[in-house]
C-alpha cells in the first residue's frame, strides 16, 4: 500500500512542477498554412526550449532563436509574455515532424503532418480540357474522362454532374494506384528479363545472378549464366520493388545451328 502511494506521488510530481499550462497539439496542415504550436507557461521562463526531435535540433531557448540553420528561417516564437508558442509560417513538407516544448525534464510533444494537395488534370478523349468549363456530350456516345492527380495527397476521385442534376459517380471507373513496382523474372528467348508493373514508371532496374549485382540493366543474356538463381529490383518515385528469386535450370533460347553445304 505504501509503495503504491510513493509511485503515484512520483508520477504526479513533475506535472505539478511544470510551468507549462497550455501544450502543443498534433495535427495535419496543408502546405503554405501558418501553424501555431501552443506552449504557454504560468510565469516567464527563459529556460523553455523548442526542439525538433527528428533532427535533434534546438530551435529556440526562451524567446531567442538558437539554431542558425536555414531550414528554420520560417519559425518564430510568440512575442507576448508567458507565451512561448511556436509559429511555423508558410509550412512546407520539410516542416513535417516531431516537435517538443521542454521545461527541464518536462517534454510536451506534437507530431505535425504537412499535406500536399495534388495537381489535377482533366482529360476528355485523351486531350486535356479546362476543368472549370462544362464538357458537351452527345447521347449514346462513349467518352473517356480521366482525372490525373500528381503529387502525394489525400484521395482523389471523379464525379460527374449532368445538367442541373446532382453529382454522381461514373459507371465505370478505374483507379491507377501509385505504388512501388511489383516485379518478376521472366525468361524470354535467350534473355532473363525483369518485368515490372509500375506507376509511376520505373527509373532504374537491377539484376542479380546468384545474389551478385550484375548492374543497372533490365535484362541479361541467359546463356552467360544458366543454371543460376535470378532476381531483380526496380525503382520508381514511390520506392523499390524486388522480385522473388527464380531458378533457371537450362538455357531455353534457340540453339545456333551450323548450316553445312554438302556438295553432291
Ligand atoms: C500566444 O501567441 C500566439 C501567437 O502570437 C497567439 O496567436 C495566441 O493567441 C497567444 N495565446 C495566448 C494565450 O496568449
Ligand atoms: C478555364 O475556364 C475558366 C472559366 O471559364 C477561366 O476563368 C480560366 O481562365 C480557364 N483556364 C484556362 C487555363 O484556360
Ligand atoms: C469521344 O470519343 C468518342 C468515340 O471516339 C466520340 O463518339 C465522342 O463524341 C467523343 N467525345 C467528345 C466529348 O469529344
Ligand atoms: C539457387 O538457390 C537454391 C536455394 O537457395 C540453392 O539451393 C541452389 O544451390 C542455388 N542454385 C545455384 C545455381 O546457385
From TrEMBL:
Name of the protein described by the UniProt record: IgLON family member 5
SMART domains found in the cross-reference section: IG
Matching PROSITE patterns: IG_LIKE
Listed InterPro entries: Ig-like_dom, Ig-like_dom_sf, Ig-like_fold, Ig_sub, Ig_V-set
Domain spans labelled Ig-like: 14-102
Pfam family, one: V-set
Domain of life: Eukaryota
Keyword annotations: Signal
Annotated signal sequence range: 1-18
Amino acid at each position: 500500500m505504501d509503495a503504491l502511494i510513493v509511485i503515484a506521488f512520483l508520477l504526479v510530481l513533475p506535472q505539478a512542477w511544470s510551468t507549462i499550462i497550455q501544450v502543443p497539439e498534433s495535427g495535419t496542415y496543408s502546405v503554405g498554412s501558418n501553424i501555431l504550436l501552443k506552449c504557454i507557461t504560468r510565469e516567464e521562463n527563459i529556460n523553455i526550449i523548442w526542439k525538433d526531435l527528428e533532427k535533434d535540433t534546438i530551435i529556440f531557448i526562451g524567446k531567442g532563436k538558437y539554431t542558425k540553420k536555414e531550414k528554420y528561417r520560417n519559425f518564430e516564437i510568440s512575442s507576448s509574455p508567458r507565451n512561448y508558442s511556436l509559429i511555423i509560417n508558410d509550412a512546407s513538407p520539410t516542416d513535417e515532424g516531431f516537435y517538443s516544448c521542454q521545461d527541464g525534464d518536462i517534454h510536451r510533444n506534437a507530431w505535425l503532418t504537412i499535406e500536399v494537395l495534388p495537381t489535377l488534370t482533366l482529360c476528355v478523349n485523351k486531350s486535356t480540357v479546362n476543368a472549370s468549363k462544362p464538357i458537351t456530350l452527345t447521347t449514346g456516345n462513349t467518352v473517356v474522362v480521366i482525372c490525373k492527380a500528381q503529387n502525394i495527397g489525400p484521395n482523389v476521385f471523379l464525379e460527374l454532374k449532368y445538367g442541373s442534376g446532382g453529382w454522381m459517380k461514373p459507371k465505370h471507373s478505374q483507379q491507377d494506384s501509385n505504388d512501388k513496382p511489383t516485379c518478376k523474372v521472366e525468361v524470354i528467348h535467350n534473355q532473363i528479363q525483369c518485368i515490372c508493373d509500375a506507376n509511376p514508371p520505373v527509373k532504374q532496374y537491377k539484376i542479380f545472378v546468384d545474389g551478385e549485382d550484375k548492374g543497372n540493366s533490365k535484362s541479361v543474356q541467359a546463356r552467360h549464366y544458366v543454371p543460376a538463381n535470378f532476381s531483380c529490383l526496380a525503382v520508381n518515385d514511390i520506392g523499390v520493388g524486388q522480385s522473388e528469386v527464380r531458378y533457371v535450370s537450362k538455357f531455353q533460347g534457340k540453339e545456333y545451328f551450323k548450316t553445312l553445304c554438302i556438295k553432291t
